[in-house]
Specification:
Layout lengths: L5 E8 L3 H14 L4 E5 L4 H7 L5 H9 L2 E6 L13 H8 L4 E10 L2 E10 L9 E4 L4 E4 L5 H22 L11 E6 L7 H13 L6 E6 H10 L6 E4 L1 H12 L9 E5 L4 E5 L16 H17 L2 H24 L12 H13 L12
Amino acid sequence: MTTRPYTILVIPGDGIGREVVPAAVAVLRATGLPFVFEEAAAGWECFQHTGTSLPEPTLAAARTADTVLFGAVASPSHPVAGYRSPIVWLRRELDLYANIRPVVEERPGHNIDLVVVRENTEGLYAGRERVEDNGATAIAERVITRHASERIARVAFDLARARHAARAGAAGNTRAAPRVTVVHKANVLRATCGLFRAVALDVARTYPDVTVEEMLVDTCALQLATRPERFDVIVTTNLFGDILSDVACARGGGLGVAPSANIGETHALFEPVHGAAPDIAGRGIANPLAAIGCAALLLEHLAQRTAPEDAAPFRRCAARIHDAIRRIHASGPHTPDLGGNAMTADVTTAILGLLRDPVIVPWSEGKH
């Protein structure tokens, strides 16, 4: 390969992040692709030791790295003076405005292949909260801007096009056109959701090849729970996307197998959705498939950012990781969250074995 080495900043964070992120790193190392790994601290325990959840050296390293692989944060549910969620902090500092949550489930009669595209920088997560009336009233401001709404809508419509192109010619592909579902609550939140809806539909007019529909958030939640196969790409605001993506992943195996990507113009961060899971941290039973799925998403991202002549190995390795995850999900070994008794290390070893199997994975093609 002619491409330069890529620097991946690894932030294990708290709880089971320290157990599943090493599994993802092992998978990335096994590809033989040109990576340099650096590790940095962030999270609740980091705050307890240093007084900050995101030290300046960590933030500086995130700015210079090609991608970030993030584990989990054990943020307290009660206010703590001086504490800020490091993942929210990183999203803002790196302008990671697009949160991408794919959900895939393949079983007889139910082929689910959808993506939730969530605006990642504003909405009710803008951090504009205050307390009035001597503590009797708490107020949060919901911030929706035309700029953020337009760029997240374009991400969704571009992704729908790309997914449709990738499916074209595939056996059993019956979806006639790419489709984007714009989700909002404009019938009640007329100013904020009204703006998001209007901007998204304006963007839709510039994508005549993509079918667009709009749906109220409560209806979308019901449809995700009962008919998730009807969706292709869902685009929505920050809080709605946070909730809907968790509803959606219940049909793809749960949080233990749910990866996510946080994408900006120049930076990208990948994190499993499951959080720190303090109830099982340190027991070696955390499911590493979500973190390993993040490794595959990371490779797909680098394939888009690298020179065209060097992109193919990244895509091949990503596809093989996705395939290995599907095989483990279908046949085991399974960690307790999926009804088994396997350890984190057992699943990791099984994934690496599948990747090295010359029948399943022509591994020599991935060596460069």
